[in-house]
């Protein structure tokens, strides 16, 4: 735990702030956009007041105006569908920007390392939080959401790659990557109720200012670490640029030719699509059908946050031992089933179980496949963690860019239930393809205890005769000489008697 705090606390806090800002807006923006539609709301209120006044002066019973009331409800329903489209565009803007920036950030990390992009990402998170906190127009929300995409790209790729570089052993790497992904789950877990509660009782500014303070503190923390590294090494990060071992890197197109990487990328994309579609569409569907209080809009997403936190923190080691392809396949099946069941809910409480299953499945998929990407990078791509995690984050960004857009446009056409059923079927149909990861997983588990030589200027953990000793232990059956000695001793004892 001490090693985790000293080495990766900055990464943990960065991912936490990123996901706090990602989710705190989900319960706030639907209500905020509805409040901004002053003119439409005023027209509907004036129309309804006119109906009431006409009824009272003419002495006509209210029942004769049932058609007018029905028309009023229809207008409100159309307004909610229009809000779906606005939210879809707003939520997808961040992912579209992240989709563009991911390849650039992956290439940047191969030249200057991971710490400087991580620091820049935290500073941009600070600025975006201030923009959200004091924005008063749809355009400003759009700008803040776009730059949040750039910050997320810097934080996610640099943070995951830095942890993969710090912990070369597969078992340690799986554990610490799970903790960092648990920071994302913690941010999601806190973000939904945090945003919904403070918006209902304090206002929209308070949650964003809190995130801005955390991001600014973390930026200072990263600046101090970069300064210490600079003082220790007069060459600084520039020595990494001149290191020939770091130059070989792989483009996303070359990585996609790898069958295992392609399957992992599609699995991450499909599993994330379920959550990406839910965020902008579920609150509006609840308002339109159940009409829960404001604070319940935030609590709706708590079960899947708990599930994701559980999956990332406690199932990484389980996946390593049981088989990453097995756990990933079962998890995608759970995601698909949850998507099929979720639209059947008639009240907020009934959403808890499918939401928890959805979050748990997504967490196990990430905890299983993210460390596997780093292992593949070690074996085939010169430990280019930035490149493989840029591709993984591109899959996530693709889900969060297409998900809100598709959801916002298809909900008025086919409805929310049919949309979720379609996504669930897609996840179920892809499960058999994860069988192709069986060979990759076998290689990973057999070599999970071998030391991995770091890229860049770092030195191998074992050198000289120590490396030969370790390799000989893996070439020969473990403890074979001890077994022969014990058997001979047992045989001699029996012969002596």
UniProtKB/TrEMBL annotation:
The keyword Transport applies. GO terms for molecular function: serotonin:sodium:chloride symporter activity. GO terms for cellular component: synaptic vesicle membrane; terminal bouton. This is Major facilitator superfamily (MFS) profile domain-containing protein. Keywords: Membrane, Transmembrane, Transmembrane helix, Transport. The chain crosses the membrane at residues 6-29, 116-135, 147-168, 180-202, 208-228, 260-278, 298-316, 328-349, 355-374, 386-407, 419-437. Residues 3-442 form the Major facilitator superfamily (MFS) profile domain. It comes from Allacma fusca.
């Amino acid at each position: 735990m001490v090693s985790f705090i000293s080495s990766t606390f900055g990464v943990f806090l960065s991912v936490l702030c990123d996901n706090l800002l990602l989710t705190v807006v989900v319960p706030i923006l639907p209500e905020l956009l509805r409040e901004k539609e002053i003119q439409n709301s005023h027209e509907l209120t004036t129309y309804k007041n006119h109906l009431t006044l006409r009824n009272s002066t003419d002495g006509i019973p209210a029942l004769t105006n049932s058609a007018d009331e029905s028309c009023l409800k229809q207008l409100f329903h159309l307004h909610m569908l229009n809000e779906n489209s606005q939210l879809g565009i707003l939520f997808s803007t961040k992912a579209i920007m992240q989709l563009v920036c991911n390849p650039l950030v992956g290439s940047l990390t191969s030249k200057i390392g991971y710490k400087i992009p991580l620091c820049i990402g935290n500073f941009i998170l600070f600025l975006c939080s201030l923009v959200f906190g004091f924005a008063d127009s749809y355009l400003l929300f759009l700008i803040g959401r776009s730059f949040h995409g750039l910050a997320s790209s810097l934080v996610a790729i640099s943070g995951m790659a830095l942890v993969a570089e710090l912990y070369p052993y597969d078992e340690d790497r799986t554990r610490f990557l799970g903790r960092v992904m648990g920071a994302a789950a913690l941010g999601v877990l806190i973000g939904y109720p945090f945003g919904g509660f403070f918006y209902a009782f304090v206002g929209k500014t308070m949650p964003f200012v809190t995130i801005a303070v955390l991001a600014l503190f973390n930026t200072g923390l990263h600046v101090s670490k970069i300064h210490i590294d600079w003082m220790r090494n007069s060459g600084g990060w520039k020595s990494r640029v001149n290191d020939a071992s770091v130059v070989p890197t792989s483009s996303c197109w070359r990585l996609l030719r790898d069958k295992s990487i392609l399957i992992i990328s599609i699995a991450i994309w499909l599993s994330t699509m379920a959550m990406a579609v839910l965020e902008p569409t579920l609150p509006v569907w609840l308002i339109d059908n159940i009409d829960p209080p404001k604070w319940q809009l935030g609590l709706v997403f708590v079960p899947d946050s708990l599930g994701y936190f559980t999956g990332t923190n406690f199932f990484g080691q389980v996946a390593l031992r049981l088989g990453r392809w097995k756990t990933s396949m079962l998890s995608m099946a759970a995601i698909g089933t949850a998507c099929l069941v979720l639209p059947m809910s008639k009240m907020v409480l009934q959403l808890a179980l499918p939401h928890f299953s959805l979050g748990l499945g997504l967490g196990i998929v990430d905890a299983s496949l993210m460390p596997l990407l780093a292992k593949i990078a070690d074996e085939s791509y010169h430990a280019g963690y930035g490149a493989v995690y840029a591709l993984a984050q591109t899959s996530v960004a693709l889900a969060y860019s297409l998900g809100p857009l598709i959801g916002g446009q298809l909900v008025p056409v086919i409805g929310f239930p049919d949309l979720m059923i379609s996504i669930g079927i897609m996840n179920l149909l892809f499960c058999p393809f994860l069988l192709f990861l069986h060979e990759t997983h076998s290689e990973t588990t057999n070599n999970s205890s071998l030391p991995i030589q770091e890229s860049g200027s770092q030195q191998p953990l074992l050198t000289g005769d120590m490396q030969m000793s370790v390799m000989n232990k893996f070439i020969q059956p473990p403890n074979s000489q001890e077994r022969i000695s014990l058997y001979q001793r047992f045989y001699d004892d029996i012969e002596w008697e």
